[in-house]
Design goal:
- This protein is α+β, with helices and mostly antiparallel strands and about 325 residues long.
- The protein is about 45% helix and about 15% strand.
- The protein is built from 14 helices and nine strands.
- The strands form three sheets. Strands 3, 4, 5, 6 and 7 form a five-stranded antiparallel β-sheet that branches. The protein has a two-stranded antiparallel ribbon with strand order 1-2. A two-stranded antiparallel sheet has the order 8-9.
- Strand 1 and strand 2 form a beta hairpin.
- The longest helix is centred in the C-terminal third of the chain and has 18 residues.
Length: about 325
């Protein structure tokens, strides 16, 4: 007899119990003639350019991705993340992560190594256990959202689950920082601390974070540890925070130059000059995306707004 909570999950997600178990075991039905198992994940490699490691994603197939999105909507969003977590949360953005660090004497940036791979199915099980469902139902949800015993980077549920796994960590570290006049935020695997030099240096933040992560079988990526004083350009998740939230000068300069080339020489000639192998349509959408990001950071910047209007006209021409 099928567990009542498993039936409840199937009803909420609107997928049959058999299909859910098939997806949770990472196998699709065997083809009658071939009798071959087909995996529900495929690997995607994101090339990040010179000096950066390629990002390897485990991406679910269409049906599993649909199920995971329903799990996100029907279950996971019922659980709140910590106030210090700013990534992948409704109503929060990069700006929410950067703003608390504006006009600080120094900024310390730390990075969690192999963040998603460090989150095991045991940790995910504890997240789903909060719903008070039966063991079979909790295990089913866990298996639907993990791959090879870990949180797959590429599944729509993974970022929010990661935030829920880190909730107690954020709360404890956030409280510890507040007691020492240190500001703390976390954007996925990027942790940012700011304050006066005495507070940031004296309190041995790195030692504290390493100890806390170690208890969760996680590690810092020491190569990405960055300490930035106010005499330098302080960036938090790509946003300059020295005086106010602003986009980097080179990004503003690049947008200005690209819009100028497009209006003066035309889009195709502009792409040739920049030696970019991309269609004009994709290029304009990419350029508009960067301009939109700049406007999110500085919505009253008339120069950036002008570039936005210009690119929109080029797209509609």
């Amino acid at each position: 007899m099928t567990d009542s909570d498993v039936l409840k999950i199937a009803s909420e997600i609107e997928i049959s119990v058999n299909k859910l178990y098939m997806l949770s075991n990472n196998n699709s039905p065997r083809h009658k003639s071939r009798k071959k198992k087909h995996r529900n994940y495929h690997t995607v490699i994101i090339h990040r350019g010179r000096g950066h490691r390629n990002r390897i994603l485990s991406v679910p197939n269409t049906l599993l991705k649909l199920v995971q999105r329903k799990i996100l909507d029907c279950f996971l969003y019922q659980l709140e993340t910590s106030e210090y977590s700013t990534a992948y949360c409704k109503g929060k953005s990069l700006l929410d992560n950067a703003s608390p660090h504006i006009r600080k004497e120094c900024v310390l940036k730390l990075d969690i190594s192999h963040f998603f791979d460090s989150i095991t199915d045991d940790s995910v099980y504890l997240v789903f256990k909060q719903f008070g469902l039966s063991v079979p139902a909790t295990s089913l949800l866990t298996h639907l959202c993990t791959y090879k015993g870990k949180l797959p980077q590429g599944a729509p549920t993974s970022p929010y689950i990661a935030n829920l796994v880190m909730k107690n960590f954020d709360k404890k570290l956030g409280k510890w920082c507040k007691e020492r006049n240190i500001t703390y935020t976390r954007y996925c695997d990027d942790m940012t601390f700011s304050g006066d030099k005495t507070s940031v240096r004296k309190n041995k933040i790195i030692v504290k974070v390493k100890a806390m992560l170690g208890s969760m079988d996680m590690k810092l990526n020491d190569k990405k540890t960055i300490f930035i004083s106010s005499s330098q350009q302080q960036r938090v998740t790509g946003i300059v925070v020295n005086e106010k939230a602003a986009i980097p000068r080179e990004m503003r300069r690049s947008i200005r130059q690209e819009v100028y080339y497009c209006t003066k020489f035309g889009i195709s000639d502009s792409l040739q000059q920049q030696r970019l192998d991309i269609s004009p349509d994709k290029y304009l959408h990419s350029l508009l995306g960067r301009i939109s990001f700049a406007l999110q950071i500085d919505p009253y910047n008339s120069e950036i707004q002008k570039y936005f209007d210009t690119v929109k006209q080029l797209m509609n021409a």
